[in-house]
Amino acid sequence: MSGYWTGILTILAINIIMAYAIFLPVATGQLNLGGAGFQALGAYTAAYLSANYGLTVWTTIPASILVGGAVGVAIALPLLRTKGVYLVLATFALAEVIGGAILNTEALGGAMGMSVPDYVDYPVPMWSALIVTLLCFYLMTTRFGLAMRAAHDDDVVTDLLGVSVRGVRVSAFAIGAALAGLAGALYAHSYSFVESQSFNATLSIYVLLYVLLGGTQTPLGPLVGAVFFTLLPEVLRSVLPEFKGWIATAFGESGSISPPDESWRFVILGVLTVLMMMFRPEGLITRTMVARVHSRFARRRRLVREVTA
Predict the structure, then answer these.
(1) How far is CA 167 from CA 74, 163, 217, in A?
(2) What residues form DSSP beta bridges with 76?
(3) Cα(104)–Cα(110) distance, rounded to whole angstroms?
(4) Which end of the chain is less packed: N or C, by CB atoms within 10 Å?
């Protein structure tokens, strides 16, 4: 496999893990815009342990997960007292504080970043993304997952039924932070270098978009959102030059045709994002859609059994 495709698969796997890291708090009704901060914590934990103590990935990756989860619990307890736009701003500010602290810490390389000696190839992030995906699907089928959905739909009624809404939200936030730590560690070992500028506000916004546009009602939504928004720019990279050539030919132009500017890919991505928000405000994948598909397949299986009986 070419280096281009291994790079795409690696970043796709990391984006899927990050999408689930943000999905879990969102599934309880909390918008988390601090994903980049927790990913930076995981990346720098892995980089520091690998570069300074020579630890292998089998030690640095669990350490990054633990650091992400522990900081998530410590932060969630005071942070989740806020709601709505204030919670969004608080998590965004948290990511900026973490990024600024890393940038001004000489032991972490400051603005120069850090090299990471131990390397993992693309199968490790891909298997990790598969395990995280299966784990989140399973989690949403448990009593804890049911409590998460209930806290999202109506936290007052959920509280009256005896469920600790605050406990559920803190737990979901901490598990999400641990997954972001895992994504950061995989990033550090896959690219062998980390710098704080890579974990900026744009990353937090993109990951939140994966979840919101993919759908927050089922665990299938973040997977679809991450795959769609990671692969679409790459598909447009090869499709746009051919489309421009076809347009030029249709209007009778001949000779060498220069490829379109790279920024057009992101213009199209932005237009699609706006259209999806207009026509699918609850995301591409909803509970109603999943229930309808299940019902259709169940009806088809019943018909097949009746015909073959």
Answers:
(1) 13, 8, 20
(2) none
(3) 5
(4) C
| Model pLDDT, residue 2 | 77
Structure tokens at 137: 């699907």
Residue 119 makes CB contacts below 8 A (sequence gap 6+) with 189, 190, 192
Q: What parts of the chain have a pLDDT lower than 50?
A: none
Backbone angles phi, psi at 196, to 5 degrees: -65, -25
Q: What's residue 68's pLDDT? A: 93
CB 2 within 8 A of CB 9: no
The number of residues in the chain equals 309
Which is nearest to 120 in space by CA: 57, 206, 207, 29?
57
Say how many CA atoms lie within 13 Å of 197 toward its Cβ: 6
Distance of CA 47 to the CA centre of its chain: 21
Ranges of beta strands (E only) in the chain are 114-115, 193-194
Cβ burial 213-226 (10 Å sphere, 16+ → b, else e): bbbbbbbbbbbbbb
Which tokens sit at 8? 């795409």
> Is there a contact between 213 and 62 (Cβ–Cβ < 8 Å)?
no
Within 131-208, strands assigned E span 193-194
Residue with tokens 């599934």: 27
User: According to the model, what pLDDT value does residue 255 have?
Assistant: 67
- Joined together, the tokens standing for residue 17 give 């893990």
Q: CA–CA separation, 214 vs 280, rounded Å? A: 9
- Residue 260 φ/ψ region, left for φ over 0, alpha for ψ in the -120 to 50 degree band, beta for the rest: beta
